Amino acid sequence: SSIGFSALVLQSAVWPLVQLANPPLIPEELVAITKKFQDFHKMKYSGTRRLSWLYHLSVGECSAVKGIKMKGAYLFIPLFCPLDYWHISLLSATLVLADPAVPTLPPP
What is the pLDDT of residues 60-77, one digit of tens each? Predict the structure, then answer.
């Protein structure tokens, strides 16, 4: 599995978007990626600019490959599903709860 990542860095004076008072939980895989981006941003701008994450405005794409056996051979079909943040959180929580080996998410 791989995770692609891109970010839009907007100025709050130009884009007056509201941050949630209680930010929602994000999947562990995305926490590591956002931390790397924060470190890069801090190094590039020497701490003169502050990042505020608007997780509730994020989008993602889930992809998989489905193999179908037809006439003795397999046909592989790529599947793509665009998701908004809330669907990503729900899917992540569902996968965590389905696998007893994965620790459960802390309460919000």
Answer: 887 777 777 878 888 888
